[in-house]
């Protein structure tokens, strides 16, 4: 039985919905991005029968709505924004509006019938919420520290108190994250696998568990690299050969949390170090080398999670040598 294709373009405060009726005929409506808005959407969709809803992967915005819809028995797909962007370009779409994006997503859903999305386990969703809260607290602390450096003496004592309170909350959340992971057998096991890789510590392992989740949804390491937006984007046309650069069409937070550990891994991880030295010898250090280190660290993380085997430097180096010389 064919289901009615529905596209949703979601933002922080609202989301636009387009129901594809036939050809260029749509029904559209805008809802508040709140629990009551979710319920309003559910009521509005009842007249369209069984629906297949498609959203772009927008992390903190798409998952709560998608989870609500799945819990209420509706088929949902969450697609990489780059796929829908490429679909729009193939249609020569020029206008950029929220309702237009929702219509394009609905057409994509109708023509490509993307695979259905399954919500991550509750423990993983809770970990993601904790990691996002930690990030928010750290951003708030940084903001207050920036204000403190230029503030008048009369307000500095107040800022010191705020910063101190935020530091305490940050430590409490870090402890809560640790306890949450340790209380779940799967998360605890995967954390140990990740931290067997030199360069991956407690914060990065928790971030990978939260933002990457179950690696079985990726067919290979290239897919997880693309998910993070760390895949190279080539710029070539005719005789023109431009420089490759990161696509950045992926999980922004993953790229952020990988940056500092990648710098450390250049010194302490034999695989990342060997890659760095090879790139430097070809005059490709600097940003190119660091991005390659981020990519390699993510690939190693995918490898240990997929295989269930801790990182072994000797095996990894032997494999690297074989790929280069055999």
UniProtKB/TrEMBL annotation:
Gene Ontology terms: biological process: DNA transposition
Coiled coil feature spans: 127-183
GO MF terms, alphabetically ordered: DNA binding; transposase activity
InterPro entries linked: Transp_IS110-like_N, Transpos_IS110, Transposase_20
Domain Transposase IS110-like N-terminal: 6-147
Ranges where the Transposase IS116/IS110/IS902 C-terminal domain occurs: 192-277
Keywords: Coiled coil
Keyword rRNA-binding included in the entry's annotation: no
Signal sequence residues: none
Ion transport in keyword set: no
Name by which UniProt lists this protein: Transposase
